């Protein structure tokens, strides 16, 4: 199964919305930039019927090198988390969407 790329998405916007190819690419870049900026500032991004992107903080902890068994400190960091909506989960699993309401 092929990977969907920015170019694929921009082409789909072009064919569905009727903007020029350049305008479609700019629109896609603007949407992605707004999502990125919101996540960078610590906000969550909810796309109804799709899911929620959020940033979670992981604290410092001790890990172990699987090869040597030596303990090493893992520094605190931010991780990006995606939580799919019930609608997206149902679509991926080929389930019926009748009567389903997005709980997020």
TrEMBL record:
One of its GO terms (cellular component) is cytosol. SMART domains: BHL. The keyword Transcription applies. PROSITE patterns: HISTONE_LIKE. Pfam families: Bac_DNA_binding. One of its GO terms (molecular function) is structural constituent of chromatin. The keyword Secreted does not apply. GO terms for biological process: DNA recombination; positive regulation of metabolic process; regulation of DNA-templated transcription; regulation of translation. Keywords: DNA recombination, DNA-binding, Transcription, Transcription regulation, Translation regulation. This protein is one of the two subunits of integration host factor, a specific DNA-binding protein that functions in genetic recombination as well as in transcriptional and translational control. Belongs to the bacterial histone-like protein family. Heterodimer of an alpha and a beta chain. This is Integration host factor subunit alpha.
